[in-house]
Design a protein that fits this description.
The protein is an all-alpha fold. The protein folds into 2 domains: 195 residues, Up-down Bundle (Growth Hormone, Chain: A), CATH 1.20.1250; 186 residues, MFS general substrate transporter like domains (Growth Hormone, Chain: A), CATH 1.20.1250. It has 19 helices and no strands. It is globular, with a radius of gyration of 27 Å. Keywords: Membrane, Transmembrane, Transmembrane helix.
Length: 446
């Protein structure tokens, strides 16, 4: 008896798929993939791995090119927390004058506030790679010139001129946020996670940078912190600029009008100014309080705990899905920041205990990152796309100006009242930021 011949596959049948008309083909097939997918339940130990959806940060770095430009940006951003303390240790250690060291760093801060927005405008107009690399090269040369002037005991005015040249350093954090804004356009949840990661990275760099700088300057030679910082800055920017596939495109027509005229930007910058005063006055008050208790060396560790709390809160905030517009979340974030900042004041006034102050700063720092993330999100939304780098750099400039004002106010309060009274300055500055955020509410522009 002849065996039945298999029916040829019909057009459109999937390859290697069993033909139900062929009596020799089994009705069901079991593959290794199917066995892995079977859930046998607790009776059989449930050893199979269930596929879990990736978390928000893991999904973020599946974007092509994201890991590469993030690595370069982190290398370039770490020196931002190194240069200030490196310059102070280097100048004060060789010239024996903290007044001179403070004046030089203040000059560099003022020059940065003036030059940084113009550098960012050039980045928007000509592209990140074309502007960031030469601007960073000038800044690195300025750092090396400062190092040589200090080492060879050049006149004091050369220190001011050299450190002022570092003002051309581009806003690497702003350029990274601009890339995320370009890559994640239309995905608000992913952009929220990206902004949270960037804020956490800022906190991490400003937490590790001073520690690394102090170690290099004390363990090797006074100029080591500045030298390593310049090398890291130049290397990081070169790696970052080499990732051309993720660079935002340059707009053919860039309006000459400054983002300062965009609706809602001036009150945001005023909020940044007030929040900068919080950071500057808190740093001075903490150092003064630790010095009054005879533990000035512990001030750096205590401030690092505040940054650690902010970093952890920023990562957690980025894993959450925000509800409602950012302009409605900002007052709540600033209100939480104002409320938590009363904890260091109470710890200093009631206990005079450094451990309790450290705990209070750790808790109060947890409101910093969510507030900054929401603020930068609003800056991105309200700044015209063609001026995004300039808009975010203006926000950073507002923070720097606020830090300078807060440091001066906190120092004045310490000298004329007490270190404990100086903890009232950050609370007042945060309350001012809260009033601004409640008074000014402008819908974002496209």
């Amino acid at each position: 008896m002849p065996m039945p011949q298999p029916t040829p596959p019909r057009p459109g049948d999937a390859p290697n798929r069993p033909n139900p008309r062929d009596p020799r083909q089994p009705l069901y097939t079991v593959t290794a993939d199917a066995l892995v997918a079977v859930d046998f339940g607790p009776r059989f130990g449930n050893r199979s791995r269930r596929t879990r959806p990736p978390g928000p940060y893991r999904r973020l770095f599946t974007v092509p090119g994201a890991r590469a430009f993030t690595l370069g940006n982190l290398l370039a951003r770490l020196p931002m927390g190194m240069f200030g303390i490196s310059a102070v240790v280097m100048i004060a250690g060789t010239r024996g004058s903290y007044a001179l060291a403070g004046a030089v760093t203040a000059t560099g801060l003022a020059a940065t506030a003036l030059v940084a927005p113009w550098t960012a405008r050039l980045v928007d107009r000509y592209g990140q790679a074309r502007i960031a690399v030469p601007a960073t090269a000038i800044a690195a040369l300025g750092s090396l010139a400062l190092l040589l002037c200090v080492h060879y005991e050049a006149p004091a005015w050369t220190l001011f001129a050299s450190y002022a040249a570092t003002a051309t350093t581009p806003n690497t954090g702003g350029m990274s946020r601009a890339r995320w804004s370009h890559l994640l356009k239309g995905d608000d949840d992913a952009l929220h996670t990206a902004n949270s990661f960037e804020q956490a990275a800022d906190e991490l760099c400003f937490m590790l940078g001073p520690v690394l700088a102090a170690f290099l300057c004390t363990a090797f030679f006074p100029e080591a912190g500045t030298l390593v910082g310049a090398v890291l800055l130049l290397t990081g920017v070169l790696l970052f600029a080499a990732q051309r596939s993720t660079e935002p495109p340059v707009h053919a027509r860039v309006l000459a009008r400054s983002p300062l005229r965009a609706p809602g930007i001036p009150p945001l910058l005023a909020t940044c100014l007030a929040m900068g005063a919080v950071f500057g006055s808190m740093e001075v008050a903490t150092i003064a309080f630790a010095d009054a208790e005879g533990h000035r060396a512990a001030a750096g560790v205590i401030l690092a705990l505040q940054a650690a709390g902010s970093c952890a809160a920023g990562l957690l905030f980025g894993a959450l899905r925000p509800t409602g517009p950012a302009e409605h979340r900002l007052p709540w974030c600033v209100a939480a920041m104002t409320t938590l900042l009363t904890l260091p004041l109470l710890a200093a006034a009631r206990t005079n205990s450094l451990p309790l102050l450290a705990l209070a700063l750790l808790i109060s720092g947890m409101a910093t990152a969510p507030t900054m993330i929401t603020t930068m999100t609003l800056v991105q939304q309200r700044t015209p796309e063609a001026h995004l780098n300039e808009g975010m750099t203006l926000a950073v400039t507002g923070l720097l100006a606020g830090i300078a004002c807060g440091s001066a106010t906190g120092g004045w309060m310490t000298d004329h009242a007490s270190a404990t009274a100086a903890f009232g300055v950050p609370v007042t500055a945060a309350a001012t930021a809260l009033m601004i955020s409640l008074t000014w509410r402008t819908p974002p522009t496209g």
